Amino acid sequence: MARKRILFIGGSLNQTSIVYKISLFLKDFDTFFTPYYSDGFVKTIVGSGLLEYTILGSNARKRTEEFLADKSCSIDYGGTAYGYDLVVTCSDLIIPQNIKGKKIVLVQEGMTDPENIKYHLVKSLKLPRFLANTSMAGLSHAYQAFCAASEGFKRLFINKGVDPKKIFVTGIPSFDNVEMYRSNDFPHKNYVLAATSHLRECYKYENRKKFIQKVLSIANGHSVIFKLHPNERIDRAVKEIEQYAPGAMIYTEGNTNQMIANSDTLVTKYSSVLLVAAALRKKVYSDLDREFLEELTPIQNGGRSAEIIADICRQYLE
């Protein structure tokens, strides 16, 4: 009997890493990977370059390809080579035609965007989900199982309309064993870490000068490190920091989680790095209410989330 096949859909480097970790516990099946993809009019928009800042853009695709090549994974671009028995993805904002009707396991990727006016418009007018980004996570209802980071996130998704019978609190790889990040060779300790955003690259407003000044005020003379978001314009960001925070250290690359582990305080806007900082019990300044962040903090299970999610996948394959 032919072995069953699983398609793992990547996206951001975090998403790709998550699905890869799950695949390691499903080696008795034929596993294939693809960068995130779309079809129809969305594919046309991607070709125009307007979605370059998203996981459909060339930068995200390149990072995914490099990661998969390094891990010697079998790649099937767009999942066109086979009729898959299961699809595992970290985003249901787009459900391509070739996986509609298939068994899908959706895995939470990290922090979700706030439920702002865009979210309410997209939901009420039934506009394409990707227009409201990750605030619409889980609302395709196209999956058999949705694996969430914590009971707090489960409640959040259910309040948005996710079927309670489909959602499972499994923890999520990358956020389920944050203590491991304390063991690192990052050369600095006891500083204020400022993790920047790519809001402007997403055509959203951000007052970067005000953000930098807020960081300096919180630091109150203590050392400051700025870790730049990988999708933002590096040249512009560096110039702004050098202008308003001369002498501050700037990192454009590196393991952000390890930087959080060595810091005393994290300052950011609204990002998945908040989940790591919350789990590490760091002092956090962000656009998110502190009590709400504590509710969302991912469960810590010693890094077993990938195996737990793989067991759920197995239920739909056997």
Element layout with pairings:
Layout: E1 5-9, H1 13-23, E2 30-34, H2 40-48, H3 58-70, E3 86-89, E4 104-107, H4 117-125, E5 145-148, H5 151-160, E6 167-169, E7 192-195, H6 208-219, E8 224-227, H7 234-244, E9 249-251, H8 256-262, E10 265-267, H9 273-279, E11 283-285, H10 290-296, H11 305-315
Helix pairs in contact: 1-3, 1-11, 6-7
What does this structure look like?
It is built from eleven helices and eleven strands. 34% of the residues lie in helices and 13% in strands. Helix 1 runs parallel beside helix 3, helix 1 (13-23) crosses helix 11 and helix 6 crosses helix 7. With 318 residues, the protein is of the alpha/beta class. The protein has two domains: 5-176 and 299-315, Rossmann fold, CATH 3.40.50; 178-296, Glycogen Phosphorylase B (Rossmann fold, 3-Layer(aba) Sandwich), CATH 3.40.50.
Tags for this model:
318 residues, Rossmann fold, 2 domains
Briefly, what is this?
This protein has 318 residues and is of the alpha/beta class.
- Main structural class: alpha/beta
**CATH-defined superfamily of the largest domain:** Glycogen Phosphorylase B
One letter per element, helices H and strands E, the order comes to EHEHHEEHEHEEHEHEHEHEHH
Report the CATH C-level class of the largest domain. Answer: Alpha Beta
- Biggest sheet details: 6 strands, parallel
Looking at the structure, the CATH topology of the largest domain is: Rossmann fold
CATH architecture of the largest domain: 3-Layer(aba) Sandwich
- In percent terms, what proportion of residues is strand? 5-15%
Q: In terms of per-residue confidence, which ranges show pLDDT below 50 for 5 or more consecutive residues?
A: none
Number of strands: 11
Q: Total number of helical segments?
A: 11
The whole-angstrom Rg is 20 Å
User: Which percent range fits the helix content?
Assistant: 25-40%
Sequence of strands across the biggest β-sheet: 2-1-3-4-5-6
* Count of structural domains: 2
Mean pLDDT across the residues is: 94
Ends distance: 13 Å
What overall geometry do the principal axes of the alpha carbons give?
A: globular
